[in-house]
Specification:
alpha+beta, Phosphoenolpyruvate Carboxykinase, domain 1, Phosphoenolpyruvate Carboxykinase, domain 3, Phosphoenolpyruvate Carboxykinase, domain 2, 3 domains, 9-stranded mixed sheet, 31 strands, 30% helix, binds oxalic acid, binds manganese (II) ion
Length: 590
Amino acid sequence: MTKNKSVLKWISNMKNLLNPAQVLFIDGTEEQLEKLRKEACKTGEIIKLNEEKLPGCYLHRTAINDVARVEDRTFICTSTRHEAGPTNNWRSPNEMYKLLYDIARNSYNNKTMYVIPYSMGPIGSPFSKIGVELTDSIYVVLNMAIMTRVGDNVWSALGESEDWVRGLHAKCNLDAEKRYICHFPQDKTIISVNSAYGGNVLLGKKCFALRIASYLGKKEGWLAEHMLILGIKNPKGEVKYIAAAFPSACGKTNLSMLIPPKEYLKRGYEVYCVGDDIAWLHIGKDGMLRAINPENGFFGVAPGTNEKSNPNALKTTKSKTIFTNVVHNLDDNTVWWEGLDKNPPENALDWKGTPWNGKTSDQKGAHPNSRFTSPAQNCPCISPEFDNPAGVPISAIIFGGRRANTMPLVYQAKDWNNGVFVGTIMSSETTAAAVGKVGVVRHDPMAMLPFCGYNMGEYFEHWINIGKKLGDKAPQIFNVNWFRTDEFGNFIWPGFGDNFRVLEWILKRCESKIAAQETPIGAVPNAKDINLAGLDINEDLLKKILDVDFKLWATELEDIKAFYKKFGDDLPIELKKELNNLENRLIKSI
Ligand code: OXD
Ligand code: MN
């Protein structure tokens, strides 16, 4: 419990609004969580899975209309529309508080109000921040207890401070027409109603650690990014860290915990995962850009996760995991999803809970955005620096999207400002992580389109300013694309563990160990410098995916210009220059 006056006052106000039958403070103890699991099993909110095969694991099914983030119902509520910028949905705070409180009023009737104190980042780190989430869902409590650091020690760390983020979640009746995910960055407040899907309701994740935190980062001089963080240990025992931004469901979890190809393992290379989704980046006392992962678990996409694509993730899900919207194998009370193996269960329930025979059905059994929520400490390659309050120093930043053409396998930006430009011109095909059409190429600067909590033009400027502060300690910036396809639509690059070969090139470039080919967009590898040993790809095929097609880039340029127009006068002059420079270089080359 806490004596913090600002917390108690808010809880009392919310109690009056929501009218719960009782209030339960989550203390983070296993005993309390176990009680809640039992209660949720009784009501059917979660299902206990086979204790021998999947110890401590549970299955949950969301409502059928509530399976992904809802970007069109996500709002940034700042005093002016301009503060939210051209890429966010905006409503005025007054209008939205009224609307949301009217929706939520009395919605905890006959229910328990759970009060979750949580820390984003290691408790006590100068880079960490505290939040309190109110919810009427045990599923949310149990997920938050995996994804964040929850418990009484958070109250101790907070003390009497008023510096914490308010988060109200109310399931209401899951009415999709009244579903709102709203952020009030100026009040450090989040309100989410009528949903129970993770990305909309685990308020520490996208809502706090990205939307509210990006706004705080702008004010306080740091960055909150949609990035994985990984460490690579070389045979000499030196570890270098990389932060990489990719849109949702584009392989961040896979890259963050990849297992290098055999020949690298033999030589003593290792990969450590620090985080798979979010990085908070500060300029450290040593002047380096330092990253912490504010989360404490993984909320990963299940379909496609298997022994080949991500053996570490698979192992991570084998205990203390909550599965959401996957197939329930009734024969042995375990779970299954598309791409797990070639042996779907015959006697099963699909993600909707309807009988499903994986051998005969032509319907998918798991939802394409079905998830696992697992503790970070389950991951076999979790970094020994995971809890380091000072974070890890970043040598390279990678941006990457899902593009069938145009973007080469990898290229290096010329300098920080050019690298920021490269991040801002990212485009990617949409995925099932958000409601809407899948496979449509859209601009997604720094993979932050759905997550930037303020005007994106100002966000670009903030990036430029961080570079000025970092000076020659700024990480090198790269762009990758694992998703180039051949004329039949097949991916050319094998991806997964073999992406290590590209990371090796990136680190060599950071240490100025190898030359590269200068092109109008940046430095592209000489084909001989990407190690293909043990792969089915020859240098000619590699050259195909390293190719920079000037004609396609001319089209891309027009597209970037149109996108940039959105930002009007908020587009930093440095980026206008970068765009002009790119155009001039392309004109000269065509
Ligand atoms: C996620 C997402 O869940 O980006 O990480 O949607
Ligand atoms: Mn994400």
